[in-house]
Amino acid sequence: MKYRVNIQILAFFISIFFIDGLSSEISGQNLKQGFFKEEYAEMLRMAVASADTPWVSKKMLPKEFVLAYRSPVTGLDNRWDLWTNNQKTAAISIRGTTGAQISWLENFYAAMIPASGQLNLDNNRSFSYKLSDNPQALVHAGWLMATGFLSETILQKIDSCYKQGYHDFYITGHSQGGAISFLMTSYLLYLQKEGKLPSDIQFKTYCSAAPKPGNLYYAYDYEHLTQNGWAYNVVNSADWVPETPLSVQTISDFNPVNPFKDASSTFRKQKFPTRMVMKHAFRNLDRPARRTARNYKKYLGNYAGKMAAKVHPELQMPDYLNSSNYVRTGTTIVLYADEVYYQVFPNDSKNVFIHHMATPYMYLLGKLEE
User: Fold this and answer.
1) Which residues of the chain have pLDDT under 50?
2) Which of 5, 173, 223, 248 is 20 to 30 A removed from 136 (C-alpha atoms)?
């Protein structure tokens, strides 16, 4: 055990050496398209500096940015930090899951709701949102709720920073913070498209170790909005968190034109007993998926929503959908865990977050080829 701990400590310092050795392109320049290791490293340091995420090291602090503002805690233990540098660039860093029970509730509040609509945060505050042009796009209820609560102070700070000459903004977060960063990016970009934010603001997003934020149609829209190098999703291939929430695809999740929608008419054209065999097989494949989707809505929507309502009694959410077709979203940078990695960070059933921590992410980032 001592040997393993020492190796991990050594890996931490090696990762810091690799990242410190990179030439900085953060200071002195406006945001650029493309993935840059040093940019992501700085975003990861911001996540570490959020301090209340229990499974990240507190030894890494941003090198080019200083903390300018920390928001009040809101939603289900949500918070964000504003970081700025001396080149008039700002970063919105959204905190990940904390040790608080309600923070975990937000993750499990995983029913799917429309990616455009309105929810009432309380009797005095409503949150009208548009995260996609596609009416089929669906997103995670808990993280959309967090986006609504956080958006109030984020918009205020974007406005005040803009008036001070800040036109470049990073959006970032690790883990739950990364999931919310997806939705926040969509929200802000659509506000910009609607003329509600200045057109000369440039956003660039780094989602780190993020779970899946929505369904395939949300992913298509997000990737269309952020293509050409303005958003990245960074994952450690050994990390289980980006594999969540649990997903199930039903026929209802396909595009309207598909061969499964009217499968019964196809079966009727077949001869007996082929027709009966095909119908029986199709039903046995289709019904369990639909039943699972309904159960997800029941437990991860209705039940989890009631628990969230105990924290925010006046909260009114959109109707939940019978869907749980979560998919990986965004341009993905894979930090590939090879054999050498597992020697440094061996699987440990007693520490399920061993591959989710900032240290292994930074270690693999140092090994990533330019």
Assistant:
1) 1-5, 9-10, 12-14, 16-28
2) 173
Residues 6+ apart with CB under 8 A from 232: 35, 40, 205, 206, 207, 330, 331, 332, 333
Q: How far apart are CA 182 and CA 186, in angstroms?
A: 6
Are 92 and 102 within 8 A, CB to CB? no
Amino acid at 171: I
Tell me the C-alpha distance between 147 and 6, whole Å: 39
Nearest Cα to Cα of residue 77 among 176, 161, 10:
176
Cα 259 from Cα 282, distance rounded (Å): 12
List, in sequence order, the alpha helices (H) in 164-270.
Answer: 176-193, 216-226, 263-268
The angle at the Cα of 143, spanning 187 to 297, to the nearest 5 degrees, equals: 120
The amino acid at residue 92 is I
The secondary element (H helix, E strand) that includes residue 84 is strand 80-84
Domains, the chain, ranges and CATH? 2-367 (3.40.50.1820)
Q: For the segment 314-365, what is each residue's pLDDT rounded down to a tens digit?
A: 999 999 999 999 999 999 999 999 999 999 999 999 999 999 999 999 999 9
Whether the model clears a pTM of 0.85, i.e. scores above it, the answer is yes
Structure confidence at residue 173 (pLDDT):
98
Cis peptide before 114 (omega within 30 of 0): no
Q: How far apart, in whole angstroms, are the C-alpha atoms of residue 139 and residue 306?
A: 19
pLDDT digits (tens, 9 = 90+) for 41-95: 999 999 999 865 555 555 678 999 999 999 999 999 999 999 999 999 999 999 9
